[in-house]
Amino acid sequence: MAEGKPFATPHRDRFLLLVSTPEQIEELAVESTRKHSKLSSQGIMVDTLNPEFTLNAKKEDPAGFIAPNLLKHKIRKHLSSMYLPMRWTVEDAFRKEMKGKPLGDGWSRVPLCYVANRITARMNNLLLVGENLASNPTFFESSIQFVTDATITLAFFNHIPKILYRPISFMTMNWSGGRSKAKSLLMSEISKRRSESSEEQGLYKDCMQWVIESSRDKSTEYIARQLLSLTLGGAHQQPMFAAFVLYNLCLHSEYIETLRAEIHTIRDNEFDKLNNGTPYLDSFLREVGRLNPLTNIALPRKVMSPFTFADGTYVPKHNWICVPHTPLMTLPNAYSNPETFQGFRFVDTEGNRSTSRFWDMSREFPFWGNPKTGCPARYFVSLNMKMMAIHFLESYDFRVAKQAIRPTFSYHVLEMPHPLLAIEIRARKPEA
Ligand code: HEM
């Protein structure tokens, strides 16, 4: 509707300036990746996660000191060695969490968001803190509680003046004890690892170890806070997306046969086959992301000092610049029938090659953020979501529950699955 012209929309105490032409998105992406850029993703993190209150971080602390590109490199490099523990975690997570109210004839009604939240938390913990701590039930429950407390706190912040942030967060972040319990378990594990030899430490392939290595002289408490920050960041989009994937599998039963047949071809489930040899599943995930982009803005950057685009558009300090998510994901010249769900639209006509992988980034698919950098965890998320979808397809019959609610729920910039969304499942009989 803006015909490519930038426009600003008020959002709490700032404006969001939305740009959408290829040239201005390129300018935004290039400026964001420049050293000492005027535009900051860290600034967005501080504005949205309020680490001073949710993490008890000092005001002058950087929001994260593990560089996203180092994280991306480490995750990609170690993904194949994390593959088996990831599979066991998915199986274990489904066994423990995929439960609901019995309906008779083997079916039960499952609260989708609750279950997706707990399954993905188990998977994230494996990446963040490794097998030992991730399998500790006290750590799991306290990390979930911490994320819940922080989400409630941040929701309060949307409705109260800044002067009340400290007293409110003091109550909401301390009442349950989730944060302090999770932090103390993180600190014990960090101290234990720091006392081990470099050979022993070399065996850990998780974010905790990479943060320890890149922090050297930082205190144990500071490292634990970084891991809490990653826990909070990682708990944001993945559960919402997982819920949308499971919901869309229930909704679009016409794709199930092909997806199950594809899974059959990777029966032995080798890492490389799953990572690179499932074009139909890759496409299905990408299509779910295209029509459920989770946020209605993408690539947000905070203006740290006044920024002027080449066309003269001037953006004062403190505001955010971003791109509109859904309009780009439904551009008619990039996607035919853009409003229609076509689960296999990213598979070539012979059906054996992906034309775009789920983790690929572009202007017309800003799901992973800046096309030049993007989410450092996207290879992990992609593998995770495939494993989760495969386990679901193989282990259950499923259908959408009858409900008089919209499947999505809008809150500020979020377009999330409706918190009351439910599906119905039944254990699948093993094939003869
Ligand atoms: C469906 C799931 C996810 C989506 C859609 C997603 C999306 C994004 C996006 C859009 C960005 C901003 C990138 C940019 O504009 O440059 C980002 C950054 C990031 N994500 Fe993800 N993400 C997901 C899951 C995760 C998980 C599970 C983790 C970690 C466990 C994670 C860790 C990070 C980190 C560390 C950053 C960098 C923040 C910075 O710039 O400092 N993400 N993600």
UniProtKB/TrEMBL annotation:
Its cofactor is heme. The keyword Metal-binding applies. One of its GO terms (molecular function) is iron ion binding. GO terms for cellular component: membrane. Its main location: membrane. InterPro entries: Cyt_P450, Cyt_P450_sf. Keywords: Heme, Iron, Membrane, Metal-binding, Monooxygenase, Oxidoreductase, Transmembrane, Transmembrane helix. It comes from the Eukaryota. Pfam families: p450. CDD domains: CYP503A1-like. It is found in: Membrane. Belongs to the cytochrome P450 family. This is Cytochrome P450.
